[in-house]
Amino acid sequence: MTGLEPGTYTLQAKIFGDKGDPSPGSVMYVVSEGQTYSVPVTYSGSAWLKPRTLTLKHVHIGEDGSASLGFKVITDSDNHYGYLQEVTFVRNSTTTPEVPSEPSEPSEPSEPNEPSEPVTPPVTEPVTPPVTEPGTSPEENPVPSPAASPVPSPTTAPGTDSGSGWTAPQATAQASATLPATPQPEILTVTEPKVNAQNKIVIPLAEGQSEVRIPADAAALKGIAGLKVDGKTVTVEIPGQVVQQLQGLVGQQQKGSMISVVLEPWSSEQKTGWTLQANTKSEAELRTAGEMFNLSLSVLNQQGVKTPLTSFAEPVTLRLKVQENGNPMLAGVYAAADDGTLEYAGGTWEQSVLTAQVRQSGNYAVLEYDKSFTDVSPADWAYSVIKEMAAKHIIEGDREGRFAPKREVTRAEFVTMLVRALGLKAEGLSSFADVDSSKWYSDDMAAAFAAGIVKGDSTGKFAPESRITRQEMATLLVRAHELRSGSPAPADSLPAFADAGKIDSWAKEAVSAAGSLGIITGTPGGFLKPQANATRAECAKVLSLLLNL
Known about the structure:
This protein is α+β, with helices and mostly antiparallel strands.
């Protein structure tokens, strides 16, 4: 700040943070004529989350009329922020203040001794006002000794409401200067969003921007189909119902509140550290294949207090760009916990972009999941599709790291694979008389039944633990394709399998459709083997063909 009249000033502001506690060394300060005046930040816990007034008195401004005002937050937490609001810098006196000696009581300074030889204050570089980045170390001694300067000591008494260690002289005149807001180039504020022809608001992010803020009471938000924030490597599409959820967090006091959408990318150091930690816990080799970032939806009230929306009423769609050397067979979107654990969130590949739907805020990453099995080698015919289905978390191995590619599959096991492949969720209970709700596959059976993929026999049974035949597998695959595509499968003629006469009449239509789609191809000798039981390797193959149609 420049152009200030000489005199004694008081700095006052409301301070608060968004999480964690400030560490010792966190201060609000002023630098003037090489002198640093500061007051410590002593709030913690819930008090740190609410705006509290902090006051720094007896700041001397000399003839040059300039000062640097700032706020330093030191913390051990990542992504920790401190905020200033309603900042004022008020001139208290037109005369140069008397220099007090070290006070015995905070409110009653004693008269100072006249120094024999005035000491010229040292000239230092001014400290800039913005909030210090997390992790910076505090200054060793930001408060100068009163004996070294003819101006009042800025030493303060921690823990007081005013933050001042002694009483200011009675003000005789006042002039104030308001500290301008600290620039935040990473935040894009859109005060008047526009709705497009699809009844959506689309906001592009520029390079370096990671947050969008929109007034919670913006007229354009009413009844919108969705809000899309489009970044360089990450795009998020928020359904209208989730926008309404955010508005609901504000309640009736929407005026002055802001909806915040944060897509904050991880640094290269964060990516490396997390991946190393995750690889120690994962059964597969993990490699970064695209962006790693934090998704956060929240609202900020007029005081800047943030209320996060942790879970969503409808899925939020993420579109993540995969790096150039990314492997589409192994790449997926994962929810990445801070401790290195991960949860598969899906991912549909199209033109080097993975699309997934998520239901909560948090960290997300594009990773390659490279799982190896002790009994599957690169020479095996199903090697690549087994890796692909393992990367999509559709198939798994046993505790010893084996896959058992030649083992025959039960009907319940194949239904579970289909449910995972389609991303279905359990809705109610299946109506099969022979599916006990206590069985491990009961939820998957219920999901498949609700989706119309499984129907059972005329007696109301499904025989979940019987081996599935290849013609039964073809029937379920066709139903899954119709559900996934939203259209009927082609009704072409039956492929010319050498053993087509062994196909049961009820399965011929489905086998014909599966053959036309290329899901069922038969053996190299031209046989279908419709009555043979399907193996785990064969299941991996047909599921790969289904998902890549």
